[in-house]
Amino acid sequence: MADLDKLVEELGALSVLEAAELVKKLEEAWGVSAAAPVAAMAAMPAAAGEAEAQEEKTEFDVIIKSPGPKKIETIKVLRKLTGLGLKESKELAETAGAKVMEGVGKEAAEDAKAQLEAAGAEVEIK
Questions:
Q1: Both 48 and 70 in a single domain?
Q2: Do 113 and 77 contact (CB within 8 A), yes or no?
Q3: Tens of pLDDT along 45-94?
Q4: CB 126 within 8 A of CB 113
Q5: Less crowded by CB within 10 Å, the N or C end of the chain?
Q6: What is the pLDDT of residue 114?
Q7: What is the DSSP string of 54-118?
Q8: What average pLDDT does this structure show over 15-24?
């Protein structure tokens, strides 16, 4: 087995150009890339920071809290948004916490919320 201390000493004496040439030769000899592990190690702290930060949601649920004072207007908007019949839309409007739309994009969720609030309903997006 090689003397590791001697090897470390010799590698420490290399110039930057010599070290770069050594890396190239090792990559060719072993069929690997030194850039991938270095990039992965550099990305680890960033990935850990991202894990702590909440990922941006791409799917939202539109939930009706109350039909508001204009229940008929709310039912009309619900029918338009969901394609449900009159009876189903009325039941949906009267059920606090019911999901009007599920797993929709942010723009669609905000549009639905705006339409329902214009009709007088109380709505939230989750």
A1: no
A2: no
A3: 555 555 544 567 788 889 999 888 989 999 999 898 888 889 988 988 88
A4: no
A5: N
A6: 92
A7: PPPP--EEEEEEE--S-HHHHHHHHHHHH---HHHHHHHHHSTTEEEEEEE-HHHHHHHHHHHHH
A8: 81
8 within a domain of the structure (yes/no): no
- Check residue 99 and report its DSSP letter: E
Contact 123, 65 (CB under 8 A): yes
Range of the domain at 116: 60-125
Quote the tokens at residue 41: 């190690």
Q: pTM (2 decimals)? A: 0.54
Which tokens belong to 88? 């189903």
Given this model, what pLDDT does residue 118 score?
92
Instruction: Please state the rounded mean pLDDT for residues 33-39.
Output: 59
Sign of CA dihedral 43, 49, 51, 55: negative
Is the pLDDT at 40 greater than 70? The verdict is no
Q: In whole angstroms, give the CA distance from residue 89 to residue 66.
A: 13
Please answer whether residues 81 and 101 qualify as being in contact, where contact means their C-beta atoms are separated by less than 8 angstroms: yes
Answer yes or no: do 35 and 67 share one domain: no
